[in-house]
Amino acid sequence: MPESPLGQRDGVDPVRVRLPADPGGEWATVRDHLVARFGGAIGVERVDAILRAGRFVGVDGPVAGAEPYTAGRYLWFHREFAPEERVPSEIGIVHRDERIVVVDKPHFLATTPRGSHVTDTVLARLRRELGLPGLQPAHRLDRLTAGLALFVVRAEDRGAYQTLFRDRLVRKEYESVAPYDPAVALPVTVRSRIEKERGVLTAREVPGEPNSESRIELLEDHDGFGRYRLSPATGRTHQLRVHMNALGLPLLNDPLYPVVRDEGPDDYARPLQLLAKTLEFTDPVTGEPYRFESRLRLLPLTGSTRLAR
User: Fold this and answer.
1) Alpha carbon 53 to chain centroid distance?
2) Which of 23, 39, 77, 173 could bridge to 278 as Cys pair (CB 3.0-4.6 Å)?
3) Three-state SS string across 138-185, please?
């Protein structure tokens, strides 16, 4: 695969487009394909304007719309970024060396560019602030979850660290604040099958062979709320939130479980009470054992009752 001729913009990589096979001969020119591919989303006039500005680029420079269509060719362009409200929290650097960066991700800040969150994400911010354009995530945290996230400095090392997570060689612990119910016997290991459909906000438990496992322990309780240690053995989308909700202990300030709330602006005063507390693994490059602990804290139980109302 050829290297992109475009650099990053605001810490965000350009979009790469590979022109697909065209056995039916639908696209005589590059413009014909780009209009078919992007015209519905941004409009034909906008596609033409981007072409005229020379912002679709191939390995040899700007691409003209009238160029003959060639399947397999690579093009790149930068998306137009809509204004984003900056999440009013800073990223804490927990560890940094020549291979990895471990950070404390704030609540509400997306890990990587996605949807309406592009330039104000952990990845884009770190690339800009640390001067590390090649930085890549080894894993991801939900936007609403705070805590430890691991990033890889060099592209050649990324696969080794991603493999740790894929092969479940990273020991992770989370903390949460949720209602306390003495009728729920804890500690407990919850196993279930979780599925999440594209375009649906929530994940759900369904019959079938379990594909998720979480260990749930009570650390303390006060005034109707508990602080819990959550240890996931797997990493399904929303797994901990789904499992706690299934126990009748939905996480405090969760906008999806048990009921999906109407979408609105983020309420920074009411963050989801879920924190990625620890990461523990053996470095796949050096063999050195690592254990990192978040410096962030969830709400004290004495303040949880007020925020739950």
Assistant:
1) 32
2) 173
3) CCCCCCCCEEEEEEECCHHHHHHHHHHHHCCCCEEEEEEEEECCCCCC
Name, in order, each residue with C-beta under 8 angstroms of 281's C-beta and a sequence gap of 6 or more: 164, 169, 170, 171, 289, 290
Distance of alpha carbon 36 from alpha carbon 24, whole angstroms: 14
Q: Quote the mean pLDDT of the chain.
A: 94
Q: Where in the chain is the domain with CATH 3.30.2350.10?
A: 92-308
Q: Residue 185 pLDDT more than 70?
A: yes
What's the CA gap between 66 and 30, in Å, rounded? 6
Is residue 111 within 8 A of residue 105, CB to CB? The reply is yes
Helix, strand, coil tally for the chain in percent (to 5):
20, 30, 50
In the set 10, 142, 266, 283, the catalytic residue is 142
Q: How far is 128 from 11, CA to CA, in rounded Å?
A: 6
Give tens-digit pLDDT for 92-151. 999 999 999 999 999 999 999 988 888 999 999 999 999 999 999 999 999 999 999 999
Catalytic residue at 223? no
Within a 10 A sphere around the Cβ of 232, how many other Cβ atoms? 20
CB 37 within 8 A of CB 31: no
What are the b/e assignments for 19-52, b being 16+ CB within 10 Å? Answer: beeeeeeebeebbebbbeebeeeeeeeebeebbe
